[in-house]
Amino acid sequence: MYRLRRSGIICHPTSFPGPHGIGDFGEAAFRFVEWMERGAQSDWQILPLGPVGPGNSPYASPSAFAGNTLLISLPWLAGDGLLDAESLQGSNESDSARVDFDAVRAYKLPRLREAFDRFRRGAGGHLRPEFEAYLSENAAWLDDYALFMALKEEHGGAAWSAWPKEIALRRPDALDHARQALRDEVRRHQFSQFLFDRQWAEVRRYANDREIEIIGDLPIFVAYDSADVWAHRDLFRLDQRGLPIAVAGVPPDAFTAHGQLWGNPLYDWDRIEETGYGWWIDRVRASLARVDILRIDHFRGFAASWVVPAGAPTSASGHWEAGPGRQIFDAIERALGATPFIVEDLGLITPDVTLLREELGFPGMKVLQFGFDSGPANAYLPHNYTHDTVAYTGTHDNQTTIGWFRTVPAHVRSHVQRYLGRDGSDIAWDFIRLALESVADRAIAPLQDVMRLDDDARMNTPGSPVGNWAWRYAPHQLHEGLADGMRELTDTYGRARPPEGPRGYDPFDYSAPGTTHPLLPRGAMKST
Fold this sequence. Notes:
Blueprint: E1 6-10, H1 27-38, E2 43-45, H2 74-79, H3 85-88, H4 101-120, H5 128-137, H6 139-154, H7 165-168, H8 172-181, H9 183-209, E3 213-219, H10 227-231, E4 246-250, E5 260-265, H11 269-274, H12 278-288, E6 293-297, E7 304-309, E8 319-322, H13 326-336, E9 341-343, H14 351-360, E10 364-367, E11 389-392, H15 401-407, H16 410-420, H17 427-437, E12 442-446, H18 447-450, H19 480-492
Parallel strand pairs: 1-2, 1-12, 2-3, 3-6, 6-9, 10-11, 11-12
Antiparallel strand pairs: 4-5, 4-7, 7-8
Helix pairs in contact: 1-19, 5-6, 6-9, 12-13
């Protein structure tokens, strides 16, 4: 019996090349999908698609439901008659290897405002019925989010807890007055979300039509300064003033003497259970409207979370408290049917976390970089994998494989060389091969590893508040030779589409055009 095995790439849309300083849903997104198809890749993994928060992190978003409007393609809006194409030529054109988020906001946000103003004056009339339907279908989260953002602008970007008390605590008469006074700004934010979802739906459809599934990311916690906490204070552990009673973190370990203090507000799981887990069901439903599979970040929090008293200087004073366990997932399944989850079960994983994952039947994660600091019983070494696993060379939080191998201690490097039976001179592709040849049902590599890039292409350094989330690749780096090399590995280890696939493609027919390219030689791609 044929066992479906898949392989894929991690690349967030902000990393695409193109104009206006940041990757977006324009031409480069469709070229990336075509490159994935040529490489016979079936999984495209992304980071959270929401608006970024402090430090430009997609994991500190002001909304668990909204999309990042910086990803909207401006030339696409010109095609819709909402902007003048000529005004975009030569403006903030950038092939930079880094996103300057402040510069991008300064350029794109006024143009999104202009697009809304033109729409309000009658441009883009073909969009009006679709927009009205969007408002109705998404009102449950969109109305609160749009008002939250309009109020945030009205109050100079201040956190909602610093707004006037009647607004911060959502007195009905104050909210009615705000909606009326800020109605144009509220509608502008609603329109921008509509544009985001309209463009992303086309990118996703283009990928799905090529048998590529999109793996999204669902952070367990939300930011305190978010529309979610402001609009649903009863679901979080807050005092009467709306301030956190306790916050999330992780305990001290061998690497962090004081632990990590994340500061996210904690859920009131008892209250959420009383509501039938409705907010969580809505959140998963909205996420699965944008992606095909969801990776749950910090899955262990559903078994138990590290609870730190608000105001504590470090997480060392925290303690473990039980989470909702499988009850929340049973509720989600009753409402939505079988849900396609991958769980991030890295870090300090206790037996209760493993038991919960196994009871639910969700695949966990294995990262090759974690496999070589101990002996053969290390769970991250491929000979210890099981089928219900997603194997990664690394993730967005790791060094690139080349950067990691260059900086690990000599005994770890020696262990890698012995395990691979190779000298490590092409370590990024050695690791890609190792992940793909494993028994794991899915094997995924960051695009930086496919491109053989060093740590100057790293996406995120946990614990570092600046300099993250900004990597972009140049157009010439995403070339056909890399795709052909990935196709060959994918074919070799049985991760291509089965012969009866939708396009009649036989992955084992090496007489077909474009399937005979050898793997690129070492050094073919250098960091730029």
